[in-house]
Amino acid sequence: MSVLKLRIYPDPVLKQKARKITIIDASVRKLAQDMLDTMYKSDGVGLAAPQVGVSKRLMVIDVSSEEEPAKPIVFINPEIIEKDGEMIGQEGCLSFPDVFFEVKRASKVVVRFQNLKGQTLKLTAEGNLLSRAIQHEIDHLDGKLFIEKATNELKRDLEMTKAGLLDGDAEEISKKLGEEDEGLTLSVPSKEAVTS
Ligand SMILES: [Zn+2]
In this structure, is residue 125 part of a structural domain? Predict the structure, then answer.
């Protein structure tokens, strides 16, 4: 078992587009196992290779709860081949410790990928944590980060500032956020209006 060092924002490797894996050999199998060890140790539900400093298209996910047996999935060269709908929910990222905010994602995704045996598989996830994790991790492989997808940029900035990942005055952002929330309540009559 090896726990790898997590790369924390703004490490430049997080912004790179990762390379396709052409040969699935012992080094890829070891990397996948080490990434799973690292993810479990950090209480994450997903981890992409760039987050441990390896710019390759490999990611691991396990959305099983603590009471359930572990259900790791290793994705090699994953590609979303179908997406549909929309969902908004809280997201965090192991490369952004203590930062959580709402992100908009597709509700349903169909992902095609290879497993450690080199077999090509397809997986469908809809309206759940697995769907969200697949989209979050594939973004990592393309050098995209969840901070680019916040539904509310002020809330994101507040979280980033509190976590010490962004220079700024948390109090000032909170104040602005308060004003913005009031504005929303006044101008938007119902919740449906926000989501439609
Ligand atoms: Zn992440």
Answer: yes
